[in-house]
Amino acid sequence: MEVSNTIFSDKPVIVSYDGTWYGLLTAVFDAYSKKWNVSGFSVIDRESQSDFFAEKVVVVTDEAKAQRVWLGLKKKVPKENCIQLYRCYLSEIAGIELTIFSCIKFYFSGFDSPHLAYGNPDVLKVNQTSKMVYREKHRMEAFVRFQRTADDLYYAGIEPDFNVIPLLNEHFAERYADQNWLIYDIKRKYGIYYDQNKVEEITLDFSNDAGAKTSVKDVFHDSETLYQELWQNYFKNVNIPSRRNIKLHVQHVPKRYWKHLIEKK
Amino acid sequence: MSERLHEKLEILADAAKYDVSCSSSGSKRKNHNKGLGEATGSGICHTYTEDGRCVSLLKILLTNHCIFDCAYCVTRKSNDIKRAAFTVQEVVDLTMNFYRRNYIEGLFLSSGIFKNANYTMERLVSVAKKLRTENKFNGYIHLKTIPGASDELMHEAGLWADRLSVNIEIPTESGLKLLAPDKNIKDMIEPMTYLKKEIIRTKEESKIFKSAPLFAPAGQSTQMIIGASGESDKDIMHTANKFYKGFNLKRVYYSGYVPISNDNRLPGLGSAVPVLRENRLYQTDWLMRFYGFHVQELLNDQFPNLDPEIDPKLSWALRNMAFFPVDVNTADLQLILRVPGIGVQSAQKIVGARRFNKLGWDHLKKIGIALNRAKYFITCNSPITDRKDYTEAKIRQFILNESRSKFLTNGGQQYNLFG
Ligand code: SF4
Q1: Of A195, A183, A192, A204, nearest to A260 (Cα)?
Q2: pLDDT in the model for residue A3
Q3: Are B185 and B264 contained in the same domain?
Q4: What's one GO MF term for it (chain B) (predicted)?
């Protein structure tokens, strides 16, 4: 990897960062203050598109710089619009960093209430992407199904379209304050665990359990099957057959989520 | 043991499902005691039934024993069905365990009337009280109030519940007399009046004493059955308007009548549920609550029924072409809200965005307005393409042709769609 510190402002640059939010904000800080002509972003150690004409520059994450960007943003646009940028980052959509960067640049460009400029393509894209991520977060708040384990942990596995776990802790910690719970992103292999005090990010090592012959009965609480069945039964009985509309049903509860929904099993 | 519980749940969920309200929004109950749950947000639909309705609450009857004989109700005395009753503890356990697993936002508890109104209401209240006190439950509770129950019980219900409702069910007094001979309108209006007063009083109190207890923070709602008593859309919406204005109701629900018997006072078994009509009524309700329309503009003696083919906003616009075209770059928000194809959010976006540059078709499309409708009613910064001088009938035809294909591919049902 080439690292260069002297970059001419007109030469296209690909900015390499560590993949974290602070890393991205640091990259924004450097690119903005050094007036780089950014043509794209890439994550260190992750393969990225090669652009032979662009120079690559590696940014070292610096919390102080990241904070300055974040605090600066808060002075320019409402908090909700700052959070929108974070949600976009969590979308993991290829190329979204450049949109975030361009949007931040626009927010700093001196217009009054720049976040209302829906005619600006970056502002619009940030709005729309953020909405998609927010919707996924909202879906997870709806679709998480906890199962009570024998040692009184409420466990839920999820596979969201976007990386929404960081957006979930507040809601679940407030709501389920008096029970231990764990929400685990099976695709991204990490989760959040709450012990009635604080929420922690954790990763699980399933390799030990793979060979063990523990049966479901041992893992789950005695009452778990009863309540799952009662819920399935309830779901069946609130349906009004003469109003049946499966199309609408699937639109609200897309099939890809069914495998974790007790009532759809 | 668990078999009996399953059977009760089957019977008592089945009997409760015709009450369409499933909202769990509008409260502000926090998890203040590190207990279970909260009801501060706009409410979450945790799943949807196969008929596409939101499931957010555990909606059950405490019992389907009833001393009344309302013709439109499965629970009516004369109906030969299996009866069941939950114990207070059973409802509490179901609610707690469903909530802990993130299945629900809370409980919606209703009941047939057994013995008398007060006896029934007392049981409903004790479920709510037990949840709030013994179980530190802060999720959403909606209690049905039984017509004729005492003020004391109504007051206690308000202390524990987030929302209270009395279902009026039949929008006209004559219809009510015919179909629900045991009920009288006075018994339904009285609790609403009492609750309205109490809600206002406690709100005032909480302004002075920050720690004043919550009283039905999500307010009152009611439901009307649609298509059971030959009523017009005007009857329904004018009654709804009275409830919104006169009793400060948070929501009025409209529930297409699902035929349940061959009683000749009612549509017979096998008649279709008026789903489309129900949808048009909800659209009208939205126009009244969020778009600044007066009910009289939408439904009056000249137009007592909504147009099934087009939504009520478009219908109003076509009857009032003199209001248009509206210039989106200069018009007031109130006027922009009246344009077919522009929703509340888009209207606000337009007003925000036009300060930066004059908006043309492209901008409007990106903002998300339905140009295929709106184009006949607006001018913007782009040259007028093809809107000039069409008659109402022509516009109606154009829009219908376009949306008919959409309508068909949507399986014939559209919801909350003004676009
Ligand atoms: S009083 Fe209520 S439960 Fe009883 S028959 Fe009438 S509507 Fe049904």
Answers
A1: A183
A2: 46
A3: yes
A4: iron-sulfur cluster binding
Q: Rounded to an integer, what distance in angstroms lies between the CA atom of residue B13 and that of residue A148?
A: 24
Cβ atoms of A97 and A55 closer than 8 Å: no
Considering the domain architecture, whether residues B279 and B359 belong to the same structural domain is answered as no
Instruction: Quote the domain boundaries for residue B373.
Output: 312-410
In degrees, rounded to 5, the angle at the alpha carbon of residue A87 between the alpha carbons of residues A189 and A16 is 75
Please give the average per-residue pLDDT across B212-239, as a whole number: 92
Q: A83 is written with which tokens?
A: 């959070």
Which two tokens mark B307? 């147009």
Q: How many CB atoms lie within 10 A of CB B417?
A: 15
Structure tokens at B188: 């339904």
Domain count for chain B = 2
Hey, what amino acid is at B394?
K
Specify whether B275 is located in the same domain as B334.
Answer: no
User: Contact B100/A179, CB-based, under 8 Å?
Assistant: yes
pLDDT tens readout for residues A222-233: 999 999 999 999
Same domain, B52 and B125: yes
pLDDT at A213 over 70: no
Quick check: A15 and A30 in contact, CB under 8 A?
A: yes
Q: What angle do CA B69, B75, B80 make, to 5 degrees?
A: 85
Find the closest chain A residue to B41 by CA distance.
Answer: A171
Residue A220 is given by DSSP the state B
Strand partners, B163: B142
Q: Which of residues 139-158 of A touch B (CB under 8 A)?
A: 141-148, 154, 156
Q: What CA–CA distance (Å, rounded) separates A234 from A241?
A: 14
- Look at residue B286 and tell me whether its pLDDT is greater than 90: yes
Q: Tell how far the Cα of B238 is from the centroid of ligand 1, in angstroms.
A: 24
| Most distant pair of Cα atoms in chain A: their distance | 71
Asked whether the CA dihedral A252, A255, A261, A265 is positive or negative, the reply is: positive
> Hey, what amino acid is at B78?
S
